[in-house]
Amino acid sequence: xxxxxxxxxxxxxxxxxxxxxxxxxxxxxxxxxxxxxxxxxxxxxxxxxxxxxxxxxxxxxxxxxxxxxxxxxxxxxxxxxxxxxxxxxxxxxxxxxxxxxxxxxxxxxxxxxxxxxxxxxxxxxxxxxxxxxxxxxxxxxxxxxxxxxxxxxxxxxxxxxxxxxxxxxxxxxxxxxxxxxxxxxxxxxxxxxxxxxxxxxxxxxxxxxxxxxxxxxxxxxxxxxxxxxxxxxxxxxxxxxxxxxxxxxxxxxxxxxxxxxxxxxxxxxxxxxxxxxxxxxxxxxxxxxxxxxxxxxxxxxxxxxxxxxxxxxxxxxxxxxxxxxxxxxxxxxxxxxxxxxxxxxxxxxxxxxxxxxxxxxxxxxxxxxxxxxxxxxxxxxxxxxxxxxxxxxxxxxxxxxxxxxxxxxxxxxxxxxxxxxxxxxxxxxxxxxxxxxxxxxxxxxxxxxxxxxxxxxxxxxxxxxxxxxxxxxxxxxxxxxxxxxxxxxxxxxxxxxxxxxxxxxxxxxxxxxxxxxxxxxxxxxxxxxxxxxxxxxxxxxxxxxxxxxxxxxxxxxxxxxxxxx
Length: 565
Hints:
The chain has helices spanning 9-13, 30-36, 60-71, 127-138, 235-241, 249-252, 261-275, 281-311, 314-336, 358-384, 387-393, 401-406, 411-415, 423-426, 447-474, 529-535, 537-541, 546-555, 560-563, and strands at residues 43-46, 51-54, 75-83, 88-95, 103-110, 116-118, 141-143, 194-202, 210-217, 220-227, 345-346, 349-350, 497-503, 508-514, 523-527. By secondary structure, it is of the alpha+beta class. The protein folds into two domains: 30-143, NADH:ubiquinone oxidoreductase Nqo5 subunit (Beta Polymerase, domain 2, 2-Layer Sandwich); 235-564, Cytochrome-c3 Hydrogenase, chain B (Orthogonal Bundle). It has a five-stranded mixed sheet. α8 (281-311) packs antiparallel against α15 and α8 (281-311) packs antiparallel against α18. One of its GO terms (molecular function) is quinone binding.
């Protein structure tokens, strides 16, 4: 690829729209942002979800620090790298934990010959893994990054798979190097005796194939580094090769395969945004109900496998979790026709209405909901009230709120640290803002709190489902529209861009899409909640025992299909 010079600031300024709308509903005040960033912005762009500002690559830290300290943008939710014919771009998506509808996008254009961008990691710790992935897959270098190494591919891999010039058919022979003890001499005392310990790569419980590079100082964890990428399946690239209308949503079931339906909604929400597709209210109720059943699937599995992680209880807790999860799977099989890879969502709605006879299906759902309180009590008796479980989880894996925010943690992991952040309430979609339910938080910030949050969220999901069933029963028969009229072939306007997210069982699951006028996205980026939550593991585990490290890992409820994508 030929070299080009740095993007012309004057040319970037020409992108400013003089008729730009300075206020998006209840969103961020764009006029105030323009004033705040006037020293740094060299241009403007218009993303569907947020105002976008073009900045220079050597101003990244100054701008993100300014937005964090002066405007309250304390959540770096996603970083998207991409390549055009004439440039690279590093796109930073920022929002606020306490005002999710306040969003801003930073676009950093980079030349093709030397795509070098200042690192945001000194300001947001979560940018560390983001930028390593951008370097690994797209080839953008981040100046000032603390450890700019590959994260999904081996260090000896040649090339960057998501660049335009990468040869997809060229085979490679990958060599591996022996691990060294990374604990520096100045971190040891005279009596310390360190040992490098490989935990994995193996499949702990049902989380997926993971490798923890661990350094022990005596019996304590002195350092731990998650080594991911063993399950990487190029899902972003597969989605870029699929068509909007039918071929992308089915891929999403493979990301977090333990609680699939929110994944489908994340894709649908992003595509519906750039294609301006409306969803009928009745279909929104069906989506909401189905997704809450999907959330239960994830939480039942999380709790039961955590019992395996913590004290090897297969005969009791694990089988109780599987018992209840099977009932939910039966319900979803009746609703969607599939046992695991549901593909219930369609653009503009869902594939079909409740199964016939409707009354029998509703009764089956209500029977499950009626039995659920007693079943949740069983979990508390067998698990959270168990003395062994309490000793293994209380006070271990502590994640303070500000640290959780710095790493971009979301979902039960963040809410167990007292962070009231849930996209179903903070950035309402579907039918959630018409229903009565509560966001669950705990303040003890430890492994025990994360289990409590998931069990309480199962009860909140039951409230949501019960209200949805009432609505579906009473909905006039001639108004039960399950899908809007969507063109057979979708070709959003070229240059249309958006980042949309939903609340999955694991946290904020986001999708960035850039359209190029064809029926497939030019760029498709997945924001995985598991990826961010796992990145915080060293903060939670260092200084504790190996047994506590295993408990902390299990409490994160990661799925490597979501981490690696």
